[in-house]
From TrEMBL, chain A:
Swiss-Prot/TrEMBL keywords: Endoplasmic reticulum, Membrane, Signal, Transmembrane, Transmembrane helix
Signal peptide: 1-21
Protein name as annotated: Dolichyl-diphosphooligosaccharide--protein glycosyltransferase subunit 3
Species name: Chlorella variabilis (Green alga)
Membrane topology: Multi-pass membrane protein
Coiled-coil annotated spans: none
TM stretches of this protein: 190-212, 219-241, 270-290, 302-324
GO biological process: protein N-linked glycosylation via asparagine
Record-stated family: Belongs to the OST3/OST6 family.
Task performed by this protein: Subunit of the oligosaccharyl transferase (OST) complex that catalyzes the initial transfer of a defined glycan (Glc(3)Man(9)GlcNAc(2) in eukaryotes) from the lipid carrier dolichol-pyrophosphate to an asparagine residue within an Asn-X-Ser/Thr consensus motif in nascent polypeptide chains, the first step in protein N-glycosylation. N-glycosylation occurs cotranslationally and the complex associates with the Sec61 complex at the channel-forming translocon complex that mediates protein translocation across the endoplasmic reticulum (ER). All subunits are required for a maximal enzyme activity.
Listed InterPro entries: OligosaccharylTrfase_OST3/OST6 (IPR021149)
UniProtKB/TrEMBL annotation, chain B:
Protein's name in the database: dolichyl-diphosphooligosaccharide--protein glycotransferase
Assigned protein family: Belongs to the STT3 family.
Region feature Disordered, mapped onto this chain: 445-478, 741-769
Main location per the UniProt record: membrane
UniProt xrefs under InterPro entries: Oligo_trans_STT3 (IPR003674), STT3-PglB_core (IPR048999), STT3_N (IPR048307)
Pfam family, one: STT3
GO-annotated molecular function: dolichyl-diphosphooligosaccharide-protein glycotransferase activity; metal ion binding
Catalysed conversion reaction: a di-trans,poly-cis-dolichyl diphosphooligosaccharide + L-asparaginyl-[protein] = N(4)-(oligosaccharide-(1->4)-N-acetyl-beta-D-glucosaminyl-(1->4)-N-acetyl-beta-D-glucosaminyl)-L-asparaginyl-[protein] + a di-trans,poly-cis-dolichyl diphosphate + H(+)
Natural source organism: Chlorella variabilis (Green alga)
Keywords: Glycosyltransferase, Magnesium, Manganese, Membrane, Metal-binding, Transferase, Transmembrane, Transmembrane helix
TM region positions: 14-37, 111-131, 137-155, 162-180, 200-225, 232-258, 264-282, 297-319, 388-421
Family annotation (Gene3D superfamilies): 3.40.50.12610
Length: 335, 769
């Protein structure tokens, strides 16, 4: 009895050892694949098969979903998400390099155009999507991958920073990602020298600009003043501070839109309206500055009418758009 | 025909001046009367929040006198800290509100209510004077006519809006006028006046720092473009020194006048101006070759010395252990930083960046004409028009960051638009007059009139002297035209009559639309005092919501005079001024931690809030609630800011806990758990579901959020409802000494829906369908 138990124990040990060795080789291969993909494995049906299909795996897989077509949507910030995700992967690799824990978490990206059916199999309905596939989850070939609710990162607090992702990874998989090292543009050591050089360059350029003849032209400054004006009345700062996209997307009509109703604005909308504002002003300036100098009376009449028409049309457009935007129908108060 | 003898010209000049005077009188009357809508439509009350503080200071000033006010310590606010009011306020507006006979307490002194309309008239006058200095009477009149009714300025200066900005915009424009006047005349008399004007500006508004930076920018531009003169020196140099002294004498600024970085520019340019003048002097003194040698020498030595100093500084900085170039230090250069990341600044709606529609709503036609004004500043470019140009460009840039700074842009936009309007009207009218003269002279005798036409035309317009050289009249232009090539010539010629008429009609139409818009906006948008609300009933009558004053009156008559009242900081000034009770925080947001403490109490569960309030000796807490009548700016809508500000100091408060599972702020059954447990939720919605549903709306339907609230039946354990105003907008609670022991009792109205009953009900509805 006792001997048989011992035998069984031994057998088990050997079996586990054997499978561990096989698993190790598998993990090493995947890590090589991950390195060749630049830190994050790009999932397609083939890599999905290699990485995930099976009864269980010796590692967790963190998957971020991405879609090329939705990158242009400013609010989603997919590009930022993926770059933060890569940062996490890189930090993880750096922290665990040479340790046994290096293969315990694998990072992968799922891109919609390359792996449409995988989106369906994983039941991804909306982006942003970041999930962990736990080691114990059995995934059959071609079958659906059903994840528990807790394995999908909650969308509160989006956009996630690399630190937030790292914290979540630690919480789910129990493995710390380690310190996130953001690449700085220039090393801090070089900074003083560089700033000195920049200062010298600025001084040099400034000195030469000061004596350059073209800097004496007033139209240069006039142009600058108009540009600043145009940028400000376009709500350029609004676009920057709120991070609004240039063009929006109307989900009901399923098409892009330039103008959005209600409060706020879209980037392009602001710039169009700012241009209309400036057009009226420039037309009036043209009437005062250019029209008196036209030589031929008939040309002058045509030019002046043209300028007035441009100003009038731009004014009409501004008032009608403003009415549409704010619904502010004013009243004469006379009757 | 007109008389062109010297006597005739003088007489016409005199008539012109009388007409200008009458026009200015009309403009001033208009500027004041357009701001009286609030008194006519509502009543003669002080508006909003900050004016109540100014009113309190004015009252104190009247009762105690000037010097006592300087040392005014207010123990009624920021309990238990108190506030050194004398040292932390801009007293300019309060000085105006000094009223000799103390009024009976219930009605605010009329001088406070009508200060703003009066100063708007002064502002129109100073705009006229400013633009007269920049370009002439015509531009002055047009600018004054625009600024009198520009909506942006109206928004802060309707009757009852006894605010800093109401007097400060006048002071701002007046300082600009004095500066330009000094610049044009070079007289020390005006430089002295500039000092006094600046003193009043500094005493009135924190926005004086805009002037403190704009004047150096102008001076710097003058130096760069080699426009340095003795007049510039007289305008700028005394202002730097005396202005800094003036600022240092206002307690709220004090030594900041020489220590803060925002004042540094003026001193730097002061030095630069002296250097530029010294160089000019040396250049005059030395022969050219000696001068260039000296210049080379100075440049070489200067650069070497600068390089050595820089190397030392850099090596010192690099050697220090705390060396680091963080994003934070760079963000100081970013003007958008505050409105993005500092919650207490970002929470105020007027600190948001404006979208394009705000410009048209607030400035209307002046935002369209301003670019033309910018270009016209270059024709010709004088010191004064350079100043206007710089003012316009900087103001429009800063207005893009915060809606609030639209107020600084308004005078600039009005001046630029006035310039454009006057020039275009003048050109069209001159063309019309030239056509008239042409017709007349052709009828009489051709030759004689031809010579005179140029001079006559030039006399018609209000154009500046510099442009007059270009006006040679139609006939002269024709003669010289053949000499030029292309379709553009250098001579000025009038437009044909029909174009001029069409143009004038359009200018008139545009200005009329501007007036229509402004008067309408003044009447409908900016006149609401926000302490009294109105809405139209279906039968056309007006319904008045006077809940705020009702609740403040309740507090003042029914609570102990020493009672401490807690609320969100928006209502602090009103509570001290109207209920005359001590508050914990108010609109002067000087202590972020204290505000965060109140935010933390409001966002914590009842027990914890009770502990916090007890520790602050609070006896009454009130919340503003709009769910009953649909008043959107209530505390539930402001709640996320309380969470953010509270969470900024106390990390245990986490915003995500207050959001629904989808990451949105919502109050229905998907609401975040922390929100449902928060004291703010309980004080706002306590017994709300029992007050009876609106037409067919389900039980517990919130009319602001348009949803049924997530939790309807609960009892309060640590607070007791003592007063709820007529429309439920103000709800006052007493902080109990000991926790309530009745909370476990069952709510008699509540009917618990069991599973059985639910399935039964479902079956019944199925049978019906």
């Amino acid at each position: 009895m006792r001997r048989s138990a011992l035998c069984l124990g031994l057998l088990l040990l050997v079996a586990i050892g054997g499978s561990q060795a096989a698993g190790d080789a598998e993990v090493q291969r995947l890590l090589a694949l991950q390195r060749s993909h630049g830190g994050v494995i790009e999932l397609d049906p083939k890599t999905f098969q290699e990485l995930l299909v099976g009864k269980s795996r010796p590692y967790s897989v963190i998957i971020v979903a991405d879609a090329k077509d939705l990158r242009s949507q400013g609010k989603l910030k997919l590009g930022q998400l993926v770059s933060e995700f890569r940062l996490v992967a890189k930090s993880f690799a750096a922290t665990h390099a040479g340790k046994g824990s290096v293969g315990s978490v694998i990072f992968a990206r799922l891109e919609f155009s390359k792996a449409k059916d995988l989106f369906g199999r994983m039941g991804i309905q909306a982006l942003p999507y970041l999930a962990r596939i736990p080691p114990s989850l059995a995934i059959s070939e071609g079958g659906a991958v059903t994840l528990g609710k807790e394995e999908v990162m909650p969308t509160t607090g989006y956009p996630w920073s690399a630190e937030a992702i790292a914290e979540w990874v630690l919480e789910r998989s129990g493995v710390a990602v380690g310190e996130i090292k953001r690449p700085t543009l220039i090393s801090t050591r070089l900074m003083p020298l560089l700033s000195l050089a920049v200062l010298a360059c600025v001084a040099f350029v400034g000195y030469h600009l000061y004596y350059a003849s073209f800097m004496r032209h007033q139209w240069l400054y006039a142009l600058g003043a108009i540009a600043v004006y145009w940028f400000s009345v376009s709500g350029g700062m609004f676009n920057i501070i709120r991070g609004v996209p240039l063009v929006g997307f109307d989900h009901r009509k399923r098409q892009s839109m330039l103008f959005m109703p209600g409060q706020g604005q879209l980037g392009a909308e602001g710039f169009i309206m700012g241009s209309l504002y400036t057009t009226v002003g420039l037309a009036v300036a043209a009437l005062i500055i250019l029209a008196p100098k036209v030589k031929d009376p008939n040309t002058q009449r045509v030019a002046a009418y043209g300028i007035i028409l441009v100003a009038f049309m731009a004014f009409r457009l501004v008032t009608s758009n403003h009415l549409w935007k704010t619904g502010m129908n004013t009243d004469w108060y006379l009757f | 025909m007109l008389d062109f003898t010297p006597a005739g010209t003088a007489r016409r000049q005199a008539y012109g001046n009388v007409v200008v005077g009458l026009a200015m009188l009309c403009i001033c009357v208009l500027a004041s009367s357009v701001r009286l809508f609030s008194v006519i439509k509502y009543e003669s009350v002080i508006h909003e929040f900050d004016p109540y503080f100014n009113y309190r200071v004015s009252r104190f000033l009247t009762e105690k006198g000037f010097y006592e006010t300087w040392d005014f310590f207010d123990s009624f606010t920021w309990y238990p800290l108190g506030r050194v009011v004398g040292g932390t306020m801009y007293p300019g507006a309060a000085w105006v509100g000094w009223h000799p006979p103390p009024p009976p307490p219930p009605s605010p002194p009329q001088v406070c209510v009508f200060t703003a309309p009066l100063f708007s008239a002064f502002c129109a006058l100073s705009t006229y004077l400013f633009m007269k200095e920049v370009r002439g009477q015509g531009a002055g009149l047009a600018s004054a006519a625009i600024i009198a009714v520009v909506p942006s300025y109206i928004s802060r200066s309707v009757a009852g809006s006894y605010d800093l900005e109401a007097v400060a915009i006048f002071a701002l424009v007046f300082v600009f006028y004095l500066y330009v006047k000094t610049l044009n005349t070079g007289s020390l008399k005006w430089a002295t006046a500039l000092f006094f004007g600046y003193l009043y500006m500094v005493a009135s508004w924190g926005g004086y720092s805009f002037i403190a930076n704009l004047l150096p920018i102008h001076c710097l531009a003058c130096i760069v473009f080699q426009r340095v003169s003795a007049r510039l020196y007289i305008a700028y140099a005394p202002w730097v020194i005396l202005g800094a002294l003036a600022a240092a004498n206002i307690p709220v600024i004090g030594f900041n006048a020489v220590l803060m970085s925002e004042h540094m520019a003026s001193f730097f340019v002061f030095g630069l101006l002296h250097a530029a003048l010294a160089i000019q002097y040396i250049q005059q003194m030395l022969p050219p070759r000696a001068y260039s040698a000296a210049k080379k020498l100075v440049l070489t030595f200067g650069t070497t010395a600068l390089a050595v100093v820089m190397a030392l500084v850099v090596s010192y900085v690099a050697a220090s252990p705390t060396f680091g170039w963080t994003g934070r230090s760079l963000s100081l250069l970013d003007p958008t930083y505050a409105s993005k990341y500092i919650p207490i600044i970002a929470s105020v709606s007027e600190h948001q960046p404006p979208s394009w529609s705000s410009y048209f709503t607030d400035l209307h036609i002046s935002s369209l004409l301003a670019p033309a004004g910018l270009l016209l500043c270059f024709r010709p470019l004088t010191d004064a028009s350079l100043f206007l140009l710089l003012y316009g460009v900087t103001a429009v840039y800063f207005s893009g960051v915060m809606v609030r700074l639209m107020l600084v842009l308004a005078p600039a936009a009005c001046c630029l638009a006035g310039l454009a309007l006057s020039e275009v009207t003048s050109y069209l009218a001159t063309s019309l007059a030239a056509a008239q003269l042409d017709g007349d002279s052709a009828q009489k005798q051709g030759k004689k009139a031809e010579d005179g036409a140029g001079g006559q035309v030039a006399d018609f317009g209000l154009r500046s002297t510099a442009d007059k050289g270009g006006k040679k009249g139609a006939k002269h232009a024709k003669k010289s035209a053949s000499a030029d090539s292309g379709w553009i010539s250098d001579t000025w010629r009038p437009l044909p009559k029909d174009v001029a008429i069409v143009g004038l009609i359009l200018v008139f139409a545009g200005t009329s639309l501007f007036y229509k818009h402004s008067v309408y906006v003044a009447g409908e948008m900016y006149s609401a005092p926000s302490i009294v609300l109105q809405s139209r009933r279906a039968d056309g009558g007006i319904k008045v919501f006077d809940d705020f004053r009702e609740a403040y009156a309740w507090l003042s008559y029914n609570t102990d005079p020493d009672a401490k009242v807690a609320s969100w900081w928006d209502y602090g000034y009103q509570t001290t001024a109207m209920a005359n009770r001590t508050v914990i925080v108010d609109n002067n947001t000087w202590n972020n931690t204290h505000i965060a403490t109140v935010g933390r109490a409001m966002s914590s569960p009842e027990r914890k809030a009770w502990q916090i309030f007890r520790s602050l000796d609070v006896e009454y807490v009130f919340v503003v609630f709009g769910g009953f009548i649909g008043y959107p700016s209530d505390d539930i809508n402001k709640f996320l800011w309380m969470v953010r500000i509270g969470g900024g100091v106390f990390p245990e408060i986490k915003e995500p806990n207050y959001l629904g599972s989808d990451g949105n702020y919502r109050v229905d059954d998907q609401a975040g758990k922390a929100l449902l447990d928060s004291t703010m939720w309980k004080l706002s919605y306590y017994r709300f579901a029992d007050c009876g549903p609106m037409f067919g709306a389900p039980r517990g339907y919130d009319r602001v959020r348009n949803t049924v609230i997530g939790k309807t039946d609960f009892e309060l354990k640590y607070f007791e409802e003592v007063f709820t105003s007529e429309h439920w907008m103000m709800r006052i609670y007493r902080v109990l000494d000991k926790p309530n022991r009745d909370t476990k009792l069952r709510n008699p109205r509540r009917t618990k829906v069991t599973k059985k009953a639910r399935s039964k009900r479902r079956g019944a509805s199925g049978a019906l369908s």
